[in-house]
Task: structure prediction
Amino acid sequence: MTEPPTSFTQTSQAQEAGHTIKVTNNGIPLSYCHSSKSCSNELGELGRTGDPYKLLPITIVDHDKTSIIASHAYTGGLPSSGHSALIDNHGYLWLCGCDRWQQLGLGSSNGGASGYTWQGGRLWQTQFQKNDYVIELLQQLDPNLGTMKKKLGNNNNSSRRWIRDVALGGDHTIILSSNKKDVMSSWRKIV
Result:
């Protein structure tokens, strides 16, 4: 991709954390820092490497080396804790960025309040990671959730299959399930 696209289906901009993610019509996510005062990508909030102030594509590959098609982007946090989320066209949640309070929800259920660190002792993820735990928990809360794929338009986009919406804050992530009654924060049911 030599010239960045000019048409996007979705844009998410974290004002305080200073970063933006846009999704093209083809499901390619791109990211950049829109504020040099609050964003430098040192916590991995862009989900990619390269010049943080240029709109560049994010490459996300599943465990079987399949490229991921994004349908929704979410950004949030503070300058000291920026993080990002994507929902792919199958409804799975992907996260990257600061994880000091386990707001990415990627650790095991054995982690407890003592926390955990990632490779090299880091408290952040520089690449988007798939969160399998949230889908597992949503299915336990509502066994009917995700059984019927919602088709949008002429494609097989089932991105709202489990998760209806995501909100990212300073040190937390909140998820609203597609049944509109289960809400999760920091990967614990709160309602």
Remarks:
- Residues 150-155, 187-191 have pLDDT under 50 and may be disordered.
